[in-house]
Amino acid sequence: VLVNNAGIFEAVADNAGDEEWHAAWARTLTVNLQASADLCRHAIASWRGAGSGGRIVNVASRAAYRGDSPMHWHYAASKAGMIAMTKSIARGYAHERILAFAVCPGFTATGPLSNPRMLEL
């Protein structure tokens, strides 16, 4: 099983300079899409070599379908790419028992809890 769960959500203004804009897009696409693609490719090669089949779970986002804020075009695009990649893998390798799935959660707070009372629950 391969689970691709790493991702970044960094803002960049639509009026940022070209260098900042391109850097944000490159960083987001590299982490959110290219790294997952590389890992999928290596896992598929390994499973094919072993003839064992395998499972891929890619964590995308609801932003893949609904878009995101004006400062996160690159994030939504990276997650839409993740969906398309997952569908391509699913279509292309299911006959070899290599199955691919994507989950698309909404916003999830991953930082410290803002309400200390929640620690008691």
The radius of gyration over CA amounts to 17 Å
SS elements, strand count: 3
Q: What percentage of amino acids are in beta strands? A: 5-15%
Distance between the termini: 33 Å
Widest sheet: strand order?
1-2-3
Outline the low-pLDDT stretches. Answer: 116-121
**General shape:** elongated
Secondary-structure content class: alpha/beta
Number of helices: 3
Secondary-structure element series: EHEHHE
Assign a percent range to the helix content.
40-55%
Task: Provide a compact summary of the structure.
By secondary structure, the chain is an alpha/beta fold.
Could you explain the architecture of this structure?
With 121 residues, the protein is of the alpha/beta class. Helices cover 48% and strands 12% of the residues. It has three helices and three strands, in the order βαβααβ. The protein is elongated. 21% of the residues are buried.
Task: Name the features.
121 residues, single chain, alpha/beta, three-stranded parallel beta sheet, 3 helices, elongated, disordered C terminus
